[in-house]
Predict the 3D structure of the following.
Amino acid sequence: GAVVSQHPSWVICKSGTSVKIECRSLDFQATTMFWYRQFPKQSLMLMATSNEGSKATYEQGVEKDKFLINHASLTLSTLTVTSAHPEDSSFYICSARRGANQTFGPGTRLLVL
Amino acid sequence: SQKIEQNSEALNIQEGKTATLTCNYTNYSPAYLQWYRQDPGRGPVFLLLIRENEKEKRKERLKVTFDTTLKQSLFHITASQPADSATYLCVIYSSASKIIFGSGTRLSIRP
């Protein structure tokens, strides 16, 4: 079946640094990838939709200059949290879509000190 | 306003009983609806998809119903087991290609 990986699975960084998270579809090509953020005991919140070869579409309230998304190929999308602050600490999950099926990655836990 | 609600934040069920989770939505016209399972610290895992023209879908001990008149989906786990304990998410795919997540129901199956 479809598999999506994320790297790293967890990261701790200092405030002010930038962190890059990779999302890969391992056995299929995904024209569309999604990035979500999830706070403890809350549901997933869509941050942006990433289409291969074009600019990402950000949800209302999500700063595109802070959360840089690059979808360079049909199997890789990256999310860079720039100048991270403690309030950016969260669980970031990507998903890749092929037709009606959406497969989620295992998530990346970000802790900003 | 558009809303998707899952019946309760937490549900506690005795092992062997049927767990029933509810997903209600307003002001959407879903093309289809999905149920996912999420364990702590993990991404959601797909369980079942049901389309707007389908009334019921089954997969092993799982059953999903979809009533577009009531704007409701029910998710059943029969012969529940402690390993079924997790958070279950209802996800709507609207006809406008928007993906909307419910807040989830945390299910606990006690031995």
About this structure: Chain A is about 0% helix and 55% strand. The mean pLDDT of chain A is 92.
